[in-house]
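Hi everyone,

Forwarding the result from last night's run.
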Amino acid sequence: MGGSLNPQTDDPEFATSPRHEFNFWFDPEAARITLRAHWPRIDVTTVDVSIKAMFTEDMLAEISKSPNPAAQYIAKNSQERYYLWDELAACAWLDPGIITQDRELYMDVDVSHGPAYGETLTWSAALKPVGLRLVHAQVDLDLPRFRNLFIELMSAPMPAAGRRSSAIRPPLGLPPGVLRPGR
């Protein structure tokens, strides 16, 4: 969750600094280490896709109907509408089909301690510096599918008191076997 390519928005935070993003800016060295690590695959939930996932009044109304304590907490404490940054990243991890478009590129973070410190840097395969990894930068999503999954997860009933699960169960709407212990 981080990075910004060229978000299409009137939000002044991103319209005037399209390569600036909080997570990369807050700790550019950690972001650089993560982007250069030898993961099997790197998927990045960028600002470009996150700003398309707003927490709406309709979503709040649906979640408010649930007796789930997490849903009730959100209903009570969510007075502002905001981007669902982390929620989108988590839902995309649970259901990768939510993401409808990504850009394959080589991504890094400026750690020069100059005016662009913490900004997202990207290259094509032909121009990439040595040591960078291919990144799948998420740029578009199936918004209704995301909203439905988010509402479904937030509205899920709590397990019966005292009952313990011996295995991780997939969230509602996901096929069995998607999440297994040890993954």
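Strands lie at 43-45, 99-109, 120-123, 134-141.

Cheers,
N.
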